[in-house]
């Protein structure tokens, strides 16, 4: 009998600077069928493991590491061919959640999550899906509220937030389109819609309103 994909042995890299948490995660993954579990306590160790062993079937990593950003590590691993990346973080900050998915993560789990939630998230990613901790999932589903020039909160979609972040980064419509695989005309349409929602057509003011709301940085 051919086992279900979830029951097959898989390899995994666990990156967290807290030994007890890292060991607990590794133990749970082994109970789920992980055959090889590599551990790293820093960005440098994770890079070394990744280069020595090549892409594993799964990586679970913290965003707050002692020698660098876990978010940058997500981007690096993604570029190296890692296709299943799970972020395990302390923060439910909306910006952190969106940034993790934009960097290439397939799941965002909170360290405060129950073992069953962690298991569900890992299984979903191993099956090729995406997963957000139930605490942060509503945020991703509904977008983000930003008070407009009249102080009335307006809902921005995840795509509109992405566009605004790139505007804040100083990118032109053409550059934003290239980054998001959109035409410059589509980017212009997104900005026009954002402007109507927020009550201003000024790019700098749109960015300022979104920054004050904590939607972008």
From TrEMBL:
What positions are modified (4-aspartylphosphate)? 62
SMART domains, alphabetized: HTH_LUXR, REC
Keyword terms of this UniProt record: DNA-binding, Phosphoprotein
Q: Which Gene3D superfamilies match?
A: 3.40.50.2300, Winged helix-like DNA-binding domain superfamily/Winged helix DNA-binding domain
The reply on keyword Phosphoprotein is: yes
Domain HTH luxR-type spans what residues?
Answer: 149-214
Instruction: Enumerate the spans annotated as Response regulatory domain.
Output: 11-126
Q: PANTHER family from the xrefs?
A: TWO-COMPONENT RESPONSE REGULATOR
Supply the name of the protein. Response regulator
